[in-house]
Amino acid sequence: MVETGRIxxxxxxxxxxxxxxxxDGATGPFQTYVDVIVFAAALGAKHNKRIPLGEISKREPxxxxxxxxxxxxxxxxxxxxxxxxxxxxxxxxxxxDQISEKRNYIFEEYANGGLExxxxxxxxxxxxxxxxxxxxxxxxxxHEEQDSEFDLSKFLS
Length: 157
Known about the structure:
The protein has helices spanning 14-19, 33-46, 66-71, 75-86, 97-122, 128-148; strands at 6-7, 64-65.
């Protein structure tokens, strides 16, 4: 059974989401709203930033049918975020609508947190694509530095 839920966007982040897609002559770094929301949710989850949506955007972008996430294989991201948050595999149950809604709420709130991080990162920026590349590069460098440091903590008991 395919879920018929929708993924919602907070009204105060709607303009940001619109500015991140490349349509109607815009040069945003993402192709679709779905891509933006998944990136934002991953960013929010990485930084453990989960923020309730508050007022929901009713117009562009309106709540996005979950099928659009499933078609692109992003339902895996929704599931991983939910498992990571709840530490409970029952969150993957396909038989209960309430559990599906809970997965979506968790995902939406992490996406909202990620969008808030992006709002801060984009202050004063003209080119969002360049700023996203800088953000990703700095994350990669941090990760490489952590991997290359000699970790003495493993010798502690």
